C-alpha cells in the first residue's frame, strides 16, 4: 500500500489526513517514483488553509525527489533506477506516486535526494528572481524581506554572489544572528519600527534599486518607501498576509511592479538548464550550506505548524 497526505477540506494543519491507497501503474508518458525526500514549501500552507482554492480531495505537496520504479510507454529519457526530482506537481506528500515524465529533472550523482528536495523549488524560484524576473547586476542595491526562509536564504546569497549590495530583513533577533553570518551588507529587523528609514540610512537616502518582498502585508509599505524612483518592486509572496500595492502610485514614480510565479519562468523547456545552474552554484558554495529540518511524512501537520510559528530557517523536508 502507498501512503499519502490529502485534505478533504481546507483549514488548520489538522485537516492534513494521512491515508493508504493502492497506487495504479503509470500510463503512457508517466513514471512511478518512490520518494526519498519531500520538500515542504510555504505555498503548501496556502493550499491547505484556503488562501488558494483547490478541488477536494486534494493531494498535498508540490516537490519531491526519489527513484524511478516503473515507466509507462513512450518514456524515452528515463529508466528504472534513475534518481529524479520535481518542483511543482501536486500530490508530493506521498511515499510513492505516478507523475508525468516531463515534470522530472534527472539528478546528478553528487546531489542527494534530500538536497534536491530542499533546494529545487526554492532554488529555482531564486534562479528566476535573480536571472529572469530581474537580472541582478553588480553594484545594484537590493533588499530582500524574508531573508531567513527557504527562498530568502538562497536569494540573498545568490544576489550577493552576483556583486549586488544586499540588505536582508528578518523578523526576530535569533534569525538576525543567523543571517548576520552570511556575509551580506546589512541585516535589519523587519519587526522593529521605521524599517524604510533604516533601509535608507544604509545607503545615504538615495533609495534602493530593487526590493524582493516575500513577506507582503508587514513589509510592502516599507518596500515602496525604500525604493528609488525608477526601481523595481518584485512582490514574491505574502508570508505575513495578503496586501495590495497602490499601482497608480508606483506608476507615478516609475517603479516596475511584478508579482512573479515560478512556473511562469521555469518550465519543461528550461528546467534542466536552470536546475543545472542551481546545482552548480550550490556546489561552488555560493548559496551557503543547506539547512534541512526533517519531519516524518505522517507528521506533516508539525511541519506546517513550524512554518506558522516562524521558528525555522532554511528548508523543511518530509521523510517517507
Ligand atoms: N511567487 C512564487 O512563485 C513563489 C515561489 C516560492 C515562494 N514564494 C513565496 O515566498 C515566501 C517564502 O517562501 P518559503 O518557501 O521560503 O517560506 P519559508 O521558508 O516559510 O519562509 C517564509 C519567511 O517569511 C517570513 N514571515 C514573515 N511573516 C510571516 C508569517 N506570518 N508566517 C510565516 N512566515 C513569515 C519568515 O521570516 P521572519 O520570521 O524572519 O519574518 C520566513 O522566513 C512565501 O510568501 C511564499 O509564498 C513565492
State the order of secondary-structure elements, H for helix, E for strand. Answer: EEEHEEEEEHEHEHEHEHEHEHHEHE
Task: Report the biggest beta sheet as strand number plus sense, adding barrel if it closes.
Answer: 7 strands, mixed
Task: State the fourth-level CATH superfamily of the largest domain.
Answer: Medium-chain alcohol dehydrogenases, catalytic domain
Helical amount? 25-40%
Measure the end-to-end span.
Answer: 13 Å
The chain-level structural class is: alpha/beta
The general outline is globular
Count of extended strands? 16
**CATH C-level of the largest domain:** Alpha Beta
Task: Based on the coordinates given, report the CATH architecture of the largest domain.
Answer: Alpha-Beta Complex
Small-molecule components bound: NADP nicotinamide-adenine-dinucleotide phosphate
Amino acid at each position: 500500500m502507498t501512503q499519502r497526505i490529502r485534505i478533504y477540506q481546507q483549514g488548520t494543519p489538522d485537516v492534513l489526513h494521512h491515508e493508504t491507497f493502492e497506487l495504479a501503474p503509470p500510463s503512457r508518458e508517466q513514471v512511478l517514483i518512490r520518494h526519498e525526500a519531500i520538500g515542504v514549501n510555504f505555498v503548501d500552507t496556502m493550499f491547505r488553509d484556503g488562501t488558494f482554492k483547490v478541488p477536494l480531495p486534494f493531494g498535498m505537496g508540490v516537490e519531491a525527489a526519489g527513484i524511478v520504479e516503473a515507466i509507462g510507454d513512450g518514456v524515452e529519457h528515463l529508466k528504472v533506477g534513475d534518481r529524479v526530482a520535481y518542483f511543482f506537481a501536486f500530490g508530493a506528500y506521498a511515499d510513492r506516486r505516478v507523475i508525468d515524465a516531463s515534470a522530472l529533472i534527472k539528478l546528478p550523482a553528487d546531489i542527494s535526494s534530500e538536497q534536491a528536495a530542499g533546494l529545487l523549488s526554492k532554488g529555482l524560484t531564486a534562479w528566476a528572481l535573480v536571472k529572469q524576473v530581474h537580472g541582478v547586476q553588480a553594484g545594484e542595491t537590493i533588499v530582500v524581506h524574508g531573508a531567513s526562509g527557504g527562498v530568502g536564504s538562497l536569494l540573498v546569497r545568490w544576489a550577493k554572489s552576483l556583486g549586488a549590495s544586499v540588505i536582508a530583513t528578518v523578523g526576530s533577533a535569533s534569525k538576525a544572528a543567523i543571517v548576520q553570518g552570511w556575509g551580506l551588507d546589512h541585516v535589519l529587523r523587519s519587526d522593529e519600527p521605521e524599517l524604510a528609514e533604516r533601509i535608507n540610512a544604509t545607503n545615504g537616502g538615495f533609495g534602493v534599486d530593487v526590493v524582493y518582498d516575500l513577506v507582503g502585508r508587514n513589509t510592502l509599505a516599507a518596500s515602496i518607501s525604500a525604493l528609488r524612483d525608477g526601481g523595481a518592486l518584485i512582490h514574491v509572496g505574502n508570508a505575513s498576509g495578503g496586501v495590495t500595492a497602490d499601482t497608480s502610485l508606483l506608476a507615478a514614480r516609475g517603479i516596475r511592479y511584478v508579482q512573479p510565479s515560478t512556473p511562469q519562468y521555469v518550465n519543461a523547456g528550461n528546467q534542466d538548464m536552470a536546475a543545472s545552474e542551481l546545482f552548480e552554484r550550490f556546489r561552488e558554495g555560493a548559496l551557503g550550506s543547506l539547512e534541512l529540518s526533517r519531519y516524518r511524512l505522517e507528521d506533516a501537520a508539525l511541519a506546517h505548524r513550524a512554518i506558522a510559528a516562524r521558528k525555522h530557517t532554511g528548508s523543511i523536508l518530509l521523510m517517507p
